[in-house]
Amino acid sequence: MAALAIEFLLLFVAGPALFVLLRPRISPIPVLWVVMAYCLAVMLRDPKFDRARLWDPSGLRQHAPAILSLFVVITAIGVALMMRYAPGRFLNLPRSNPVLWAVVMVLYPLLSVYPQGIIYRAFLFDRYRSLYGSGWGMVVASAAAFAFVHIVFRNRLAVALTLPAGLLFAVRYWQTGSLLASSFEHALYGCAVFTIGLGRWFYHGALPR
After folding, report:
1. What is the arithmetic mean of pLDDT over 55-76?
2. Do 75 and 192 touch, CB atoms closer than 8 A?
3. In the chain, fewer beta carbons within 10 Å around the N or the C end?
4. CA distance 24 to 17
5. What is the enclosing helix (H) or strand (E) of 192?
C-alpha cells in the first residue's frame, strides 16, 4: 500500500509539478509517451489485467448515443459562451490555419488522447484499486490526477475545464470498462476545444491567437 501511494504521488503529483518547475523546452507529449509505456508495461505484466479493456468496442457501441447526445449539448453551450465572451477567437484555428487544424483533428486522438486514457483511466483504475476502491473514490482520483497534469500548460482554465471532463471520462470508463469508449468521448471534446477557439489554453506551443 505504501509503495503504491508513493508511486501514485511520484507519477501524478511530483511528475507534473517538476515539469512546471523545471520549464523544459520540450513538449509534454514525449513525456506522456514515456509514462504511458511504463503504465502499459506494468499492466501487461499483470496476469489479472483484462487486456480487452484497452480496445473493447462493445462499450462504445452501447454508449455512443449517450456520448454523442451529451457532447452536442455541452458543445452548444461552449459555442454560445465563446460567441458571448470571445467572439474574435471563435473558430480561430480552422479559420487561420486549416491545415494545422486538420492535422490536430487526426493526430490528437492518437498521440495524446489514447495515451492519456491508458494512464489516467486503464492504469489508474487497475493499479490503485487497493488505495481508492473500485467506485467513486477511484473516479475522483482519476479526475483529480487528470486535471492536475494540465498544470503543465500553466493556466488555470486548463485545470478548471479538465476537472469536470476528467470526471466524465472516468465515469464513462467505470460504466463501460472500455478504454475505447472513454477515449472516443475524450477525443470528441478535445477536438471541439481546438475547433471552437479554446485551443490556446491546451497547447504547449504557439497556436494562432
Report:
1. 95
2. yes
3. N
4. 12
5. helix 179-196
